[in-house]
Structures are given as C-alpha cells and as structure tokens.
Amino acid sequence: MSREATVIVPRRLGSHGSDGREASKESETPASPLGEWRPEHIRVRLLLGKGPRGMQLLLLAAEGGGTSQVVAAFKENPTFMVLNLVTSAIVLTIVIERFAFQLSRYRVNSREFFAQIKKLVQAGNIDRAIKLCEASDYPILQLVKAGLTHASKGEAEIDAALSEKLSELKPQAEKRVGALWSLANIATLIGLLGTVSGLILTFGAIARPGLTQSVKQQMLSNGIAEAMYNTALGLGIAVFCMIAHILLHTRAKNIQHDLETTMEKTFNLLTIQQQRPGQY
User: Fold this and answer.
1) Which has the closest alpha carbon to 162: 171, 152, 151, 173?
2) Does one domain contain both 145 and 220?
3) Left (φ > 0), alpha (ψ -120 to 50) or beta: where does 176 sit?
4) Per the count of CB atoms within 10 A, which of 25, 197, 221, 248 is most buried?
C-alpha cells in the first residue's frame, strides 16, 4: 500500500532565479508588473511506496488563493458588489422576518381550536367561547371572535363582520413576500451591470500603449474574473430569492386557505345555531 501526503511550498512569482526553475518550468507564471510577493503556493504530492524508485515527487500545479482573488476584485471595483451585498442584506431581512411571522403567528391548530369553540357554542356558552378567543391575539382567534361577537345578530351582520376581519388578516400572511421576486431581478441586473462595467474597464486598460503581452494577458484575466464575480454574486442572490419566494408564497397560500375555511365554519355554526329554538 502506498501512502500519500501533500506539502505546501511557498514560492515567489515572477522570480527568474534557480529555485523557480528547479521546481518546475511549467508552473512559472508571468511576472507581476510590480514584482511583488503573492500568497500563492506550489502543491507537491509525495507518493511513498515499495517501488524501486522509493519516493516520487509529483508537482501538481501552482495554486492561487480563490478568496484573495475575490478580495482583489472587490477592492478594484467595489461599486456593484456593494450594491448586491446591500440587496442581499435586504433579502435576508425579509426572509427571516416573514418566516418568523408565519411560524409564530399561525401556529394554532385551527381544527382543534374550532372543535372547542363548536362545543361551547352548541352548549350555549357564547361568552366562554369569546373569552377563549381573547386568550391570545392569533389571527385565527381574532377571526372567530369577530363572528362570535355578532352571534346574536342576523346572518348579514355575521357575514359582514367575518368578511371584514378576513380582509384584514389575509394580506398580512403574504406581506412583503412579492418583493422577493423583484429583488431577484434587481440583483441579477446589478450583477450584469458589474460584468459589463468590468469588461469595459478591462479592455480600456489593455488598450493603453507601452504594455507587454504578458502584462496585457494578466490584466485581461483579472478583469474577466472581476466581471464573472459580479455575475455570480447577482445570480446567487437571485436563486436564493426565488427559492425563498416559493416557500413563503406556498405557506402564505395555505394560511389564507385555512383562514377562509375557518370563516366558513364559523358562519355556518352561528347561522345554524340561530335557527334552533331558544338559542341566543
């Protein structure tokens, strides 16, 4: 069995000394225009086995830090990345607030709650049913209470009270959810603007006279990378917005359907109870 290990050896890019040539000619990259040190490394894999050669050194590749490239692109032209970071902060705020609202305000089991209300109403304990609804300010309880407070009135008054309360509660379930779709489009367009801007600046820079071919290639690759980072950031935010919109919109529709069902049950319960002799 052979064993494998990885050794990270730092080196200096752009150096034409003997150390760079002894490591590998294929791993050399064009010298930086400023000749500065860069946090790049050579990854070497050691294969230890029983073969006649004993130890083999395989030079894999010169490995640059992807994170450092993103930071460099951000420092070079941060305008559109900052705009998309602000957009992502707004998106996260909306998503967290909406999930917290839906999970906290609509956690009442409407079937079990209505079963308790039904028993009290059929027993003629309207006041106890109203007090049960006043135990908390959950939307389901508020809707049923709106009908119970008009139980002694006619069908038209009961229906009007329930419909008015329902019209107040339904928009709250889907509030600000639709904005996620618009924010997804905005993030995508900001990313595209950053891409176009980066390419324009890059091609303008390499068109200047007096630059060597290696410098132009380096500037072109850095400019294209910066442009792609803008696109990737915008698309990532857009995908997150769409997924969050689907989840929140689906849950909001289920909540609204539950409210409508509870309204119909409350109306039917109160109107049927009125038709019985000696009630209210």
Assistant:
1) 151
2) yes
3) left
4) 248
Q: What percent of the chain has pLDDT over 70?
A: 70
161 and 266 in a common domain: yes
Determine the average pLDDT of the residues in 235-252: 95
135 compared with 38, residue with greater pLDDT: 135
Distance CA 206, CA 194 (A): 18
pLDDT in tens, 66-118: 566 667 666 666 788 899 999 999 999 999 999 999 999 998 888 999 999 99
Q: Which of 5, 25, 32 is nearest to 221 (CA)?
A: 32
Domains in the chain, number? 2
pLDDT at 40: 41
Q: Are residues 47 and 172 in the same domain?
A: no
Read out DSSP for 156-218? HHHHHHHHHHHHHHHHHHTTTTTHHHHHHHHHHHHHHHHHHHHHHHHHHHHTSTT--HHHHHH
Q: How many Cβ atoms sit within 10 Å of the Cβ of residue 205?
A: 15
The answer to whether residues 177 and 263 belong to one domain is yes
